[in-house]
Structure formats: structure tokens, C-alpha cells
Design brief:
2 copies of one chain form a homodimer.
Chain A lengths: L1 E5 L2 H13 L5 E5 L5 E3 L2 E3 L1 H10 L17 H8 L10 H15 L4 H11 L5 E4 L6 E6 L2 E4 H7 L6 E7 L8 H9 L2 E4 L4 H9 L4 H7 L4 E4 L2 E2 L2 E2 L4 H7 L6 H7 L6 E5 L6 H5 L4 E5 L6 H12 L1
Parallel strand pairs in A: 1-2, 1-9, 2-5, 9-10, 10-13, 13-14
Antiparallel strand pairs in A: 3-4, 6-7, 6-8, 11-12
Helix pairs in contact in A: 1-2, 1-13, 4-5
């Protein structure tokens, strides 16, 4: 059994690659909920949806988010009404949010709703929100405090960040399913998601960090920084803004005490010895999942 | 200035007819909110929307509700997900509900949101929800207690009703705008909407009935029952279920003490004297707004 701490796109790709080399029923994704939001009355869980859509083969590769074959009738109308249309919700995608919002209002937990959506999409991988409690990643910036999607989507993460606050994480508890999956997994994987805003909001939820510290030898992490840059998103910029080294070494230090084995890209092979000096194992391989072959190679490295 | 107590479709047609014979700026609609609901996370106000859409010329004549040129992409997806798709929300219509839900979550009142939507649609008629407080019309039935849309849409009002409960009406207060419009109107009109489930939930909101009692001589009502039948909807069946006479006389008695002048249909001309014996004036005319000419005739009767 493999449990993967997961953000959105990068994690989804790794999960898809893993499910080609081990049976999907042996994989559990523990997913960030810090960028979840309530907008236009609807509870939206971007990371959970990205993972579900990607594993169901329904992801929109062109956009890099959302569903394939999407249409925008509702958003076009909402824009005409002068509504909150900066966070684009496609017509197909909206059905997910309507479904989730209704089920939550009926008393279902986010975990239950996620399981229902996974069943609907025929997924064999188990997808678990890290917690059913409220967690909200917020940013202190030049423009004042922003919630996740204001920072990420509305301002295209093009704003200087002075601090990140995972509001509610201190009081939130990981679900029993999450803790069980972490405790019983033969391997815990940290996906190449943004360390500061995808993985840290998982680690800060009550119960998670303690298990990883205890199981450090079984924890494998894939560096999201390659040759000093993030493949996607603002991880590099955020590391710099918050005083971390913008390199795979910076990420190794950020996850200090939690990871037994690091997988870094060939482009960073020269940093392997520095990382080993931190007392961890290092595997050097191609970490960019540009094609199926590379993805499979990375998946094999993760489970090796 | 004319103020019209309004339910949905019947009231919308009368308002449209009135705005052809007096300037729309002189008309205020005070609208029922007892059938409002929160579904799929969204706050939906069917009567307010029917009136707004109809006055904007955007109503779907084919369906009898919703918007013209509608599409159903979101509902089709939601149905596939096994979600709550029995209450059909078109893609264009959804934008209204997303807009409203977002504005309410930002702290706007239902009155403010309604005004914004009316401005967007370029309406000159003033449309006011009777209250910004929560009011919910519920039904005791053979199937147990049902909320409005469960009764009306889900079960197609094809169920025996033993009692109607306007939950929250006792504590709700009419808005200041509503009271002002009732106090200052030269004429108060009760639209030919369902007396029990469209108009009564307005009358029961704190402040409304008192003004009508005081201004009874200036109150004109159009009978929604013609020749013992409702043109549309379950008004006739509900009157019978709840022990009222199923006729224009039954409605006259239901509104006892509130109406100075009754407008009844030519089909009920033989009941005019019975109604006059209740101490009210009676105008007999065509009340079915089947075409523009009839609608105009009714509008003239209302303002005469």
C-alpha cells in the first residue's frame, strides 16, 4: 500500500503514473484542502477535483485544469450580470460543485462526498481529503491578506508574499482514514507539489507530521524544483520570497526530519552529495513526467 | 403609485399588463419569498425571478418558467452524478442564483440583490421581496411535511394537503421599503396569484396585513379562481383540501377585511351579488390575460 501526499496537477500526474505500475487499489491519495473555497454559494475543492478528473481521464489538458469538453454558458451569463466570474467554473465542472454543496448541506462530510464522486467516476485509487475540518491557506502580500484563489487565480500569483498562514490547521484533525493510510502504508510519498502551499497545509493538519516523523525511513519525496525552477506555479518564487534556497536542496531542508529518500532530477545530479550529507538517501532520475515513459520511470523510482 | 402583492406567473403577467397602461416607475411589486429555497448550495427565489425575467421579456413561454434560450448542460451533468436534479436549473438561470448566493454571502440583503438584478435587466418597475427575513412555506401532507418545492415541483402538487405552515412569518418583518410602498400607494393590488401559498405568505409577514386592513378601500383584488377552477397551479385543490369554497366567493372570504374592490371574471358574473353582500365593490370583466387586449382590459379595470 502506497499513500501519496498530494496537491493538484503534479500529484495527479504522479498518481496516474503510479497506477500504471501498481494496482490502483493499493494507492491512497491524501489531498490538500487548504485551497478549497466557497464562491457563488458553492464549495469548491480544486485539488480534490484535479486529482479526480485526471485519474478519471476527464482532465482538460489544454487548459491545465478543469474538465475536457467543457462549456462556459453559466460563466458567460454570470460575467454579464457582473458576478464573480474571475474564478472560471465550467458548466460540467459546476455539476461537481452543486453536487458537493448539496451533499455537505445534507450533513455529508467532504470525505464522503469525495468517495461518492470517485465511485461515480469509477476510480480504484482511494482519494481522501486530509481533513473534514476547515483549513484555509492565506497569504500576506503587498496587496494585503489574500485567500488562496485570490492569490493564485485572481492575481495570477504575481504578487510578493511575506507570509503564508494555514488558517485552522492547528485545530484541524486528519481523518481516521488518513491516519490509518499513513500508518499502514508500506511507502509514503510526497508528490512533487508545491511544498509551501500544497504539501505544508497537509503536514500542518493535526496528526500528519507526527506519523511522517515516525515513519521517516519509509517516506519518499519527489523534488518539485528542478534546476532552480518550478515546472509549474509559484513554488520557486514563494521559496525565494520566504527566504528558502530556491533549489532541490531548499526543499530538502524545508521537509527536514520527514523524508528518508529524495528523488531529484538529473539536472540536479550535482546536488546529490549535498543532500546525502543531510542524512537521507538520494535517487537521481528524470522527474519531469513529459511523456508516459518518463512518468513510468519516475513511478518505478518511487516504489523501488 | 400602485403596489401589487405578487406571487409568480399570474402576478408577472398582471405587472406586465399594468406597465402598458401606467408608467412602470409608478408600479411596485411586493413579492412572496415563502417558496425560496437553498438547493445545491444556491439561494433560489422562484417568484422574484419569474417576475424579473417576465418583465425583462426573458421568460420562457414554452416552459412557463425560467429563461428563454435556456440550455441544460449543468443539470445533465448533475443528473449523471446522481445529484438533486429534480429542480431544474438552466445554465442561464444558474447565473442568477450564483450571483445572488455570492452577494448574500458578502452580506447583501435579498432586497439589495433583487434591486441589482432589476437594474441589470433595465427594469423600471420596482421589485421588492416582502421581507429580508427567512420565511418558508411548508405543507403537512399524506407524505409528511414537505417544503414548498418538494410539494410543488418534486411531487407536482399532486398530494393531499392537511395544513400549510408559513414558517418564520410570525417573526419576519416587512422591509421599510415594502411598508412605505403600501402606505403611500394610491392603490394596492392583490394579483391573481395563489391565495394560500403566494399571497398569504406575504400577508403573514409582520406589518403587511395591518396596512391592508387600514387601507382596505384602496385595495383591489383580482380573483385567481374562475368558474370554480384555477387557471394554473393547485389553488383550487388547496382551497378544497383546506375547507374553503372553491370559487371566487371562497377567495373573497379568505381575504375578508382586506379588500375593498373585487375583480371577477365574466364567467362568475352570477356571483357578483353574493360578493357585494360581503360589503365590497365588484367589477366584472375578462380576467384571463390570454392576449394583449384582454390583459390591457384587466389592467384598466385594476387602475380604474
Amino acid at each position: 500500500m502506497i499513500t501519496v501526499l498530494s496537491g493538484g496537477v503534479g500529484a495527479a500526474r504522479l498518481l496516474r503514473a503510479l497506477s500504471d505500475v501498481v494496482h490502483p487499489r493499493e494507492i491512497t491519495a491524501v489531498v490538500n484542502v487548504g485551497d478549497d473555497l466557497v464562491l457563488n454559494g458553492l464549495t469548491i475543492c480544486p485539488d480534490l477535483d484535479t486529482i479526480t478528473y485526471t485519474l478519471a481521464g476527464l482532465n482538460n489538458d489544454e487548459l491545465g485544469w478543469g474538465l475536457s469538453g467543457e462549456s462556459w454558458r453559466v460563466m458567460d451569463e454570470l460575467e454579464q450580470l457582473g458576478g464573480a466570474s474571475w474564478f472560471r467554473l465550467g458548466d460540467r465542472d459546476l455539476a461537481t460543485h452543486l453536487y458537493r454543496s448539496q451533499r455537505l448541506s445534507e450533513g455529508a462530510t467532504k470525505s464522503q462526498v469525495t468517495a461518492e464522486l470517485c465511485t461515480h467516476h469509477g476510480l480504484a485509487i482511494r482519494v481522501l481529503p486530509v481533513t473534514d475540518d476547515e483549513v484555509a491557506t492565506q497569504f500576506d502580500t503587498d496587496l494585503g491578506r489574500l485567500n488562496f484563489q485570490e492569490y493564485f487565480v485572481r492575481h495570477h500569483h504575481d504578487v510578493k508574499v511575506t507570509a503564508i498562514d494555514i488558517v485552522g490547521a492547528g485545530e484541524a484533525r486528519a481523518t481516521d482514514e488518513v491516519i490509518d493510510s499513513l500508518v499502514s502504508a508500506s511507502r509514503i510519498v510526497i508528490a512533487p507539489s508545491n511544498p509551501l502551499i500544497s504539501i505544508d497545509p497537509i503536514l500542518r493538519v493535526g496528526g500528519v507530521r507526527e506519523v511522517l516523523e515516525r515513519r521517516r525511513d519509509d517516506v519518499v519525496a519527489v523534488s518539485p524544483i528542478i534546476d532552480g525552477r518550478a515546472l509549474k506555479g509559484p513554488a520557486d518564487r514563494l521559496l525565494a520570497d520566504l527566504g528558502h534556497e530556491v533549489s532541490c536542496v531548499g526543499v530538502v531542508d524545508f521537509y527536514k526530519g520527514l523524508v528518508g529518500t529524495w528523488i531529484i532530477d538529473e539536472a540536479d545530479a550535482s546536488r546529490a552529495d549535498v543532500i546525502r550529507s543531510r542524512g537521507v538517501k538520494v535517487i537521481v532520475t528524470t522527474t519531469i513526467m513529459a511523456d508516459a515513459q518518463n512518468a513510468e520511470r519516475l513511478a518505478h523510482a518511487v516504489i523501488s
